[in-house]
Amino acid sequence: MSGDTENFHCQDFTFFADPLVPFSSILHCQKPYFQSYGLFADNAAMSPQDFIAKWGAPDGVPGPSFALNEEQGAQSHFLDLCELLGVPKPGSAEGYLFEEKGVVIGRRIGYADVFMRGVFAWENKAPGGNLDAAFRQLLAYSFAMSSPPILVVSDRFTIRIHSWS
C-alpha cells in the first residue's frame, strides 16, 4: 500500500464460486467479526447461491446485475449483502445510512456510499474499479465524518476492509 495508508490494516475478501469451499463457510468464519459490532443474524434472507447468481463471481458467469454501473449497482448490492449476511440494512438505526455527506479540503463535497456512525464508511465501485483510488477518496471524506475506525472499498467482487492500527 502507498504511504498514505500505512496506518491502516487491510484485508481483502473476494467473492468466488468454488464448489470445494462453500461461500457460506467463508462468511461463517467472519461471523465473530460482525457480531462484535452487533451485526450478524442467523436468519439470512438470501442464500450464497442466489447472491452469486444475481451478481456473478470472479472468473465465473456474470449475473444479470453485473453490468450495472457504480451508481446503479451500489445500493442494491449493499442491500443484497445485508440480506446474505442477515444483518440490518441502512436506515434501520440512527446514523446508519446511504450517501453520507463529507466536506473535503477545498470545500468539495463527497459522499460515502454507506455509513454507520462510529463504525464504518463504505465506498462502492463498479466491477474492475480502482480500489486504491476509492480508498484515497473515502479517506478524504472520512475526516469530515468523525473518522470511522473501519473504511471499506468494494468493486462488488473484492471487498477491502481497512482499519486503523
Walk me through the topology.
Elements lengths: L7 E7 L8 H7 L1 H5 L12 H8 L14 H16 L10 E9 L3 E9 L3 E5 L6 H12 L7 E5 L3 E7 L1
Parallel strand pairs: 4-5
Antiparallel strand pairs: 1-6, 2-3, 3-4, 5-6
Fraction of helical residues: 25-40%
Rg from C-alpha positions? 15 Å
Number of domains: 1
The profile of the biggest β sheet is: 6 strands, mixed
What structural class do the secondary elements suggest?
alpha+beta
Q: Please count the beta strands (DSSP E, at least 2 residues each).
A: 6
Major sheet strand order: 1-6-5-4-3-2
**What oligomeric state do these chains adopt?**
single chain
Low-pLDDT runs of 5+ residues are 1-8, 14-29
* SSE string, helices as H and strands as E: EHHHHEEEHEE
Cα(first) to Cα(last) distance is 14 Å
Q: What is the overall pLDDT average?
A: 75
Describe the structure in your own words:
By secondary structure, this protein is α+β, with helices and mostly antiparallel strands. It has one domain. 29% of the residues lie in helices and 25% in strands. It has helices at 23-29, 31-35, 48-55, 70-85, 131-142; strands at residues 8-14, 96-104, 108-116, 120-124, 150-154, 158-164. It has a six-stranded mixed β-sheet, sandwiched between helices. Strand 4, helix 5 and strand 5 form a beta-alpha-beta unit. Residues 1-8 and 14-29 have low confidence and may be disordered.
